[in-house]
Amino acid sequence: MARQVEQPGWWEEYRDDLPTWFALYVEPEAAARRISTYQPTVVDGLLQTTAYARAVFAAGHPAPSPAAVERQVAIRLQRRRELLDRADPLRLDLVLCESVLQRAVGGPAVLAAQREHLRAMNAREGIDVRVLTFAVGAHPAVRSQFAILDLASEADPDVVYLESLQGGRYLEMPSDLERYRGVFARLRECATPLEEYL
């Protein structure tokens, strides 16, 4: 454990390229054993293709330079490798709003490739992608997006992460965790498994 503490995290070399609020997120994310997340607007960053991620970052405001976009894409791909390809991979439970699979981020060809990538990633052990279809109507998270990080260490409290254009917010109170776990459980109940949707 002492050796691990002394070793810098993978994100250290990218610290200057990460917003401060997101740099705070990647450390507990790296320590998580499971992440349960609801994404209403885009595919979760851990499951984005290179072209899809490029389109997401290029849409930023103010418009970033091509070099800045490529740096962010490299960070996103490194995050995926570090979390999903490690010896004990992160377990990822993802609920996507159906609109995510309809919105042509990067154009129709990029979206089609992204959908195929989701199908392939969903086939991996420990990854479960579900789709909250339009037919569900209003649901408990209709006004938000969030991620619940279940951390591997009993010494660290699990956390709910909320993200907006202005930054990230972290909730650690047991009552907040209980509420968001309940909302996520309800979303999973309402959602269709990806293999049935695509």
List keywords for this structure.
single chain, alpha/beta, 198 residues, Endonuclease, Chain A, seven-stranded mixed β-sheet
Question: How would you describe what is shown here?
Answer:
The chain is an alpha/beta fold. It has one domain: Endonuclease, Chain A (2-Layer Sandwich). Helix content is 41%, strand content 20%. It has helices spanning 2-6, 20-31, 50-58, 66-84, 108-122, 174-190, 194-197; strands at 32-39, 91-97, 127-132, 146-151, 159-164, 167-171, 192-193. Strands 6-5-4-1-2-3-7 form a 7-stranded mixed beta sheet, sandwiched between helices.
Q: Nearest-angstrom radius of gyration?
A: 17 Å
Helix content: 40-55%
Q: Uncertain runs with pLDDT below 50, 5 residues or more? A: 1-5
**Largest sheet at a glance?**
7 strands, mixed
- CATH topology, anyone? Endonuclease, Chain A
What would the principal axes of the Cα set say about the shape?
Answer: globular
What average pLDDT do the residues reach?
92
Question: Which CATH architecture is right?
Answer: 2-Layer Sandwich
Order of helices and strands: HHEHHEHEEEEHEH
Q: Which strand order does the major sheet show?
A: 6-5-4-1-2-3-7
CATH class: Alpha Beta
What is the CA–CA distance across the termini? 43 Å
Strand content: 15-25%
Class from helix and strand fractions: alpha/beta
Please, how many helices? 7
Number of strands: 7
